């Protein structure tokens, strides 16, 4: 087991479903051990991988310590939990789900408080007039400290919150909050507003690799297999395959035509026996390419989506392996 790559996936919460869908798209089927309460599993058809089901915040800590090699979690949790993000992990790719923003929010009733500088004044006044410090409810203690220091707010105290943070001002346990928001509904329901310059971090779920985990030969091979499929799916999703029956005697320079339309000839330039050529291009360029092929004398042109586009390069794995070498 010690040579296995540990892949940490969210076991609950809002990231779970999307993370499963992401792996499924890449052809990586997660097989959970016997029963829904078994928090370990495997990847069907990929050897040398141990799947661990953990909460999103636990995934951040395990990547930090090196107990997990790869994981899916929110960037907010990575930046909150890890003291040295660059030295501990590599954020391989954003995943397009789990979008949320970490913000500073104050009571809507504070009409004169719009920016962080106003907050500094409020804090100073509270201190001199009432002899107490402004209280900030949050579970993002480190992000808050860093951001408040950067924006010059010093006279405050953090009240650590374990949930329902937005309720703290109404409950009287803090004056303001730092929390995550997506739709803004929870802030609005609690009569809070975001400060104009109070955006600490825009976060989404990321595929993250640990630089602290033991990367032996077995784990590196498993990494190439897993990331190879993820890259192949990513490449395929943004690409269209264009086939065309070209006239034998066309005399057109296919390589130049492809180059003009951001296309490539993955199987080479010479036409097949029946004059069929295969190109690949970005989705956005496909109609320009098909028009150009027709203009060049193509008899039939078809466009299709592809499931996977494997290539010699494995950009995600290479990025990480390069980091591990330095
Ligand atoms: N509206 C949202 N509120 C909170 N988190 C969100 C939201 N949208 C996306 N996320 C992301 O999902 C991550 C995990 O949040 P989620 O609430 O699903 O976890 P959880 O299992 O409930 O953990 P916890 O009990 O600590 O909240 C967040 O850190 C963030 O990256
Ligand atoms: O801007 P909105 O779309 O309203 O979403 C934001 C809310 O969602 C999250 O809470 P969650 O439901 O995860 O409960 P929790 O506080 O127990 O984690 C977060 O902590 C906010 O309270
Ligand atoms: Mg939550």
TrEMBL record:
Lineage: superkingdom: Bacteria
EC number: 2.4.2.17
Pfam name, any one: HisG
GO molecular function: ATP phosphoribosyltransferase activity
Reaction(s) this enzyme catalyzes, per UniProt: 1-(5-phospho-beta-D-ribosyl)-ATP + diphosphate = 5-phospho-alpha-D-ribose 1-diphosphate + ATP
Keywords, alphabetical: Amino-acid biosynthesis, ATP-binding, Cytoplasm, Glycosyltransferase, Histidine biosynthesis, Magnesium, Metal-binding, Nucleotide-binding, Transferase
Cofactors (names): Mg(2+)
Compartment(s) of residence: Cytoplasm
Activity regulation, per record: Feedback inhibited by histidine.
Keyword flag Metal-binding: yes
Residues in ATP phosphoribosyltransferase catalytic domain copies: 56-214
The keyword Acyltransferase is assigned to this record: no
Pathway field: Amino-acid biosynthesis; L-histidine biosynthesis; L-histidine from 5-phospho-alpha-D-ribose 1-diphosphate: step 1/9
Family indicated by similarity: Belongs to the ATP phosphoribosyltransferase family. Long subfamily.
NCBIfam families (alphabetical): hisG (TIGR00070)
Function: Catalyzes the condensation of ATP and 5-phosphoribose 1-diphosphate to form N'-(5'-phosphoribosyl)-ATP (PR-ATP). Has a crucial role in the pathway because the rate of histidine biosynthesis seems to be controlled primarily by regulation of HisG enzymatic activity.
Protein name: ATP phosphoribosyltransferase
Protein encoded by which gene: hisG
